[in-house]
Amino acid sequence: MAQLQPVTDSRAPAPSAYDWYVVAILFATSVLGYVDRVILSFLAEPIKASLALADWQVGAVTGAAFALLYVFGGVFIGRLLDRGRRIAILSLCILTWSLATAASGIATGFIALFVARMFIGVGEAGLNPAAIGIISARFAQDRLQKPIGLFTTGLYVGGGLAMMAGAQLLARFAAGGPYHLPFFSEAEPWRLVFLLLSVPGVGLAILLWLSVKDGAQSGAAKNASGGDALAFARANRRPLTLLALSIVAWSMNNYGLLNWYPAMLMRSHGMTPALVASTYGPAFLFAGVGGCLVAHPLHRALKRRAGDKAAYHLCFAAMSVLSLTTIVGPLMPTVTGAVVMAFINLFVSALSVTAVFILLVTIVPPALRGRYTGLYMALVNLTGGAFGSVLVGLLTDRLFGAARLDLALSTMALAFGSPAALLMLLAARPKNRMLAPRAAPLPA
């Protein structure tokens, strides 16, 4: 079998201003998507009190509910995206998750909130596969890392804004009222936050539909079949298995940390939601964006030394550091130490997220990127997204107690962080290099 080499085209024209406008719109879409996703983690404590939820139920609505339809939607939508109409599909996805965000605000119990979060998952299932496909159609292979790095900053801009804006909205709504909604004589402030955040999605979906034109898809992408995807998987069983196991372990640690660290600051250090928003919110925003943006120059520097293995090495380095910082961060004895470690954790977490996307576009043929991006997102959400948060909740409910959420987070990091880095290192070994299928290689 021939080794699968990255596709490059030194003759490709430089990206136009409109190409970067498309990246900017996709970035805004990512910001909005992650605001709607992450806001629940910030609102977890008032929602828990209002709906009388246990920690495992909080973990279920922040993780498992989102992941259930995200997983199936990601695979199905990824297949549709490889066949075309990416703008229409993404616009419909934005409308779906916006309506589901509004439904979260009128949930009256665990089941209703769980179902609403499921539909946020199916709406957001198309976001990353569509965006990666749209960007890949507009940028040459050797120029993809920078726009992908910029796109992935949306996760951390959205997460930071969710906390900072969420705190301001909570305080504003708490100071006013009472607020009367259908079915609610007095609506709690957290409900109004969800309802208000559902509005911008409608406008963004219309803007995307009217102003963004998709780049031309190759004939290979339009004609790629399930057989092509299976042929690529069969040719790379061993490296893909190692990568999948590494990503699963990494996502268990990373999602547990992202979903529960704000609550840990409140429980272990007595921080109010407003104080968490003013400290952890900026950490999520600035450290997260910094981690995303530094991934591209680090990959470029590593590539001069490691060649095609640079993306693997970047993932290994980021996962190794993250395993250490996420063990130490929750156990810091002071508020200052915990907040400083939050900045460090989020910087390395963002670097690792971007590094995995860079690895994905490096090893997967262009014709299969939508499908494999959907599979990747399904994998991380079915495992870390679904069960990382739940497992943290179970550790507090059954073992450590609600007051020792810090021990639960450090235990997750110890159990999953180091194995993730080790498996990534094994995947980078020469005997595990990615290969093209033996018969009928996929066209670039």
Structural class per helix/strand content? mainly alpha
Taken in chain order, the helices and strands follow as HHHHHHHHHHHHHHHHH
Report the total helices: 17
Overall 3D shape: globular
Return Rg in Å. 21 Å
Major beta-sheet overview: none
What percentage of the residues does DSSP assign to strands (E)? under 5%
Number of separate strands: 0
Give the % helix: over 70%
Low-confidence sequence ranges: 1-11, 218-223, 436-444
Question: Mean pLDDT, nearest integer?
Answer: 80
Q: What is the terminal-to-terminal distance?
A: 16 Å
Descriptive overview:
It is a single chain. With 444 residues, this protein is mostly helical. The chain is 78% helix and 0% strand. It has 17 helices and no strands. The chain has helices at 17-42, 44-51, 55-82, 86-105, 110-124, 127-138, 145-175, 189-197, 200-211, 219-223, 226-235, 237-269, 273-306, 310-328, 335-363, 369-400, 405-427. α4 (86-105) runs antiparallel to α8 (189-197). The longest helix has 34 residues, at 273-306. It starts with 16 loop residues before the first helix and ends in a 17-residue tail after the last helix.
Task: Reconstruct the topology from this structure.
Elements: H1 17-42, H2 44-51, H3 55-82, H4 86-105, H5 110-124, H6 127-138, H7 145-175, H8 189-197, H9 200-211, H10 219-223, H11 226-235, H12 237-269, H13 273-306, H14 310-328, H15 335-363, H16 369-400, H17 405-427
How would you summarize this macromolecular structure in one to three sentences?
The chain has 444 residues and is mostly helical. Helices cover 78% and strands 0% of the residues.
